[in-house]
Amino acid sequence: MSVATYPRPSAPFLSRERTVAEAHFNRWLVPPAALAIHLCIGMAYGFSVFWLPLSRAVGVSQPIACPSDMTFLARIVATTCDWQISMLGWTYTLFFVLLGCSAALFGGWLEHAGPRKAGLVSAVCWCGGLVISAAGISLHQIWMLWLGSGVLGGIGLGLGYISPVSTLIKWFPDRRGMATGMAIMGFGGGAMIGAPLADLLMRAFATPTSVGVWQTFLVLAAIYFVFMVCGALGYRVPAEGWKPAGWSGISISTRKLVTKHDVSLEAAWRTPQFWLLWAALCLNVSAGIGVIGMASPMLQEVFGGRLIGLDLPFSALSVQQKGQIAAIAAGFTGLLSLCNIGGRLAWASFSDRIGRKATFFTFFAVGFALYALVPWAANLGGPLLFVLILCVVVSMYGGGFATIPAYLADLFGTGMVGAIHGRILTAWAAAGILGPVLINYLREYQIASGIPQSQAYNQTMYILAGLLVLGFICNLLVRPVAERHYMPARKPAAPVTPRAAVIGETPVSRTPAASERLSVLAILAWAAVGLPLAWGVWITIQKALILLH
Fold first, then answer.
1. In this structure, is residue 522 part of a structural domain?
2. Do residues 402 and 345 touch, judged by C-beta distance below 8 A?
3. Residue 237: strand pairing partners
4. What angle do CA 379, 385, 391 make, to 5 degrees?
5. Cα(first)–Cα(last) distance of the chain, in Å?
6. CA 481, CA 512: separation in Å to the nearest integer?
7. Checking phi first, is residue 56 left (phi over 0); if not, alpha (psi -120 to 50) or beta?
8. H-helix or E-strand containing 48?
9. Exposed, middle or buried: residue 226 (CB in 10 Å: 0-12, 13-18, 19+)?
10. Which of 136, 536, 505 shows the shortest CA–CA distance to 337?
11. Is 528 contained in some domain?
């Protein structure tokens, strides 16, 4: 085991050198630091909780419509009429377009700057964007909401999303999938905490003249900034050549694809392996995101009155009955969110045992069968099997996000995996367009053609199943990266004298007892992120139980 190196006192505080861990550092402190950031930026998934209140920010009790002849430019600066939800939805689009673009653009910088600096920049962008958005809501200028949360916040999303990936993979070479699954699980779980918290805050701040949204944004910005800064400052990177005690090297299940060499960013994205994985991720996400985006209306339209014991189609229900099934559909959406989170950790951890390629084969093969079975399950009568199938599908959607960083590290090494992961996230942006367009426009086409609403999704499910066949082929074609793409081997750096030796202390050995034991600090760090996450899970389970009744 190599000797740990330490930063010289002259290194800037935010430099990567100052984040090199000391010999006694517990690697289990890094995952909660990553979760602290991901649970905050994951609120992007829950922003829809603001749409209805913001659509009546002027009218408060009822929306005030803008004149029909008002131009688009006039609408974005108007202060006397309310915004349409379709205009507010552009914030959500900007989130994920900017996430993919900023991750691709700044991924290389992250590898050199280190996770601490990237995490702090992410905190400033994400929380600063919320403050700008709060000002825009107060002044009723939607362009400030787009600029603040959409653009600046989207950049913060991209940096925050990729900042822990390469760090965790270096700390857990023996459990790459589990490590990235723990961090990326937080991004899926952010909405479970943020959405109910935002709802509580809006209710507290609401007055006869205000819907309480801009105040909620400011409180969330303050809470998130504290958590994200603590997470960023908690990041550490292992010393050059560090390995976990007792780890012998590459696991048996993945040895054919795992390399001990590093591939540069510029070389990696020119290899066929990169584009095969890009396509595989895009196809897996396209299928899943289409279902997530239409989960609530799909359940309501497919089962209609059967959700409340009535043999009536959705169109024949009264307003009160539609409200009842909407509450059930909300529970279904919460259940899918829980499966999305659990799938990120479970599937990524499972990939450590069977290998990344085999895990993606599972996504595509099992996913193909499940999508093809959805129309049959819908015709059985009860929603239980339908719900179960979609829960598994969504778990594999989340699992794809959590497994892909480890897959990249296997193929291209850990040296530039953060930058490579940033580039491949552009597949997410493409999938965010492909999936919803397929399911939304095909649904409208089916209904316009006279297909009953309960059957409007059947053809779409078969098409999504076809996408997974293409993904299976892409994954099948993945081979080890050719040696010509490897970066030249780096010479070992001369070890820097540990600070303990300088001041006359006894150096701490890198033993399992020193690095893996459960310390008070580790317990506190995990509690700081675990308790809010547990609260969010409990709220989600309560909503999901409505579905079972």
1. no
2. yes
3. 20
4. 125
5. 57
6. 33
7. alpha
8. none
9. middle
10. 536
11. no
Distance CA 207, CA 148 (A): 25
List phi, psi (to 5°) of 429.
-60, -45
For the entire predicted model, the pTM comes to: 0.81
Residue 426 lies in a domain: yes
Is 168 in contact with 16 (CB distance < 8 Å)? no
Q: Which residues have C-beta within 8 Å of that of residue 301, sequence separation ≥ 6?
A: 314, 453, 454, 456, 457
* Tally of domains within the chain: 2
pLDDT tens digits for range 442-467: 777 777 787 877 777 888 889 889 99
CB atoms within 10 A of CB 143: 12
Beta bridge partners of 207: 210
pLDDT, tens digit, 9 for 90 and up, residues 421-439: 989 989 988 887 787 777 7
Please, are residues 307 and 299 in contact by the beta-carbon 8 Å criterion?
A: yes
- Integer Cα distance of 172 and 164 in angstroms: 12
CA 394 to chain centre: 13
- Domain encompassing residue 47: 19-242
Q: What is the CATH number of the domain that holds 275?
A: 1.20.1250.20
Amino acid at 539: I
Of 218, 242, 266, the residue that ends a domain is 242
Given the structure tokens 């995996």, which residue do they identify? 417
Residue type, 509: S
